[in-house]
Amino acid sequence: MKLKFKIFNTKDNKQSVKSTDIRKFVIYRTELKRNSDDMDAYWKAVQAVNSDMMPSNGELIRLHNRALLDSHVQAVITKRRMAATQTEWECVDSEDNVLDEYQSHINSRGFSETVGAVFDSILHGFTLIQYDTTTRRPYVVPRQNVKWQTGSVIPDANNQSAQGEPFDTYPNHILFQHSRLGILTPVCRIEIMKRNALGDFCDYMQRYAMPISVVTTAGNDAAQAKAVAESVNNAGSDPTIAMPSGYVENLELKSGSNSSTNDLYTKGLEFFNAEISKAVLGQTMTTDDGGSYSQAAVHLTVEGRINSDDLRYIEDELNAQYLPLAVALGWLPTNCKLRPKSTDNRSLDEQLDSDNKLITLVPSIDRSFFASKYNVPVTDSETPYAVVLGVGGTQAFISIIADQTLAPEQKKQSLMLLFGLKEQEADKLINIQSV
Question: Looking at the 3D structure of the chain, how many domains does it have?
Answer without folding.
Answer: 3
